Amino acid sequence: MEQRLQKILSGAGICSRRAAERLLEEGRVTVNGRTAQLGEKADPECDEIIVDGRRIGGHERTMTIMLNKPAGVVTTMHDERGRRSVADLVQQCPVRVLPVGRLDQYSEGLLLLSNDGELIHQLTHPRHEITKWYEVTVRGDERGIPRLAQPMVIEGYRIRPAEVKTRNRLDNGDWVLSIGIHEGRNRQIRRMCAQCGLRVIRLKRVAEGGLTLDPGLAPGKWRELTGEELRLLAGDE
Active-site residue numbers? Predict the structure, then answer.
């Protein structure tokens, strides 16, 4: 069935509809070998739709992978500044996948990438309230730790109170915390800690929506999710 290309691209998890419009305006989308125009329609089951040299739609299989992102890697599929990105780590993935949400450059741990548009929407839309858990090492006045679980405003936005558990104190005086958040706004945990007089030394995402980072997955490595893990993310269990 024919649909507007913007809808096809967003539904395939390539990008948002607004970003799809930019791709079309920049001439980066072709349909059956011809540069597509904004507002054009196509049938993803019959037409060859290519974005930046990669085919989408058709019979490309749906795939979601777990990446153990190392610190120092940016969460983007193309970095104009030439920094190492997650695209460099998933080059061997047989289908085009996109990051589901973000981890900032200096954070590490569980990052999902997928070409399943429905799953991407479910995991990133605020109304679904997917809880993400982080292992956070902080330095500073320990009296700021209880404040992390209190309501606070970040850049004019009142965030929901985080779940905070103190795990242990290191020999150098740093604290290791488990922090669960729902919104996942830009650098949210780092900004929360700064407001409470704490400095983040290390930030690692360890769980998302019931899915836990595979302890056997080395930094920089990825694997496809199992059927059971996909059901966990979908909330079927």
Answer: 104
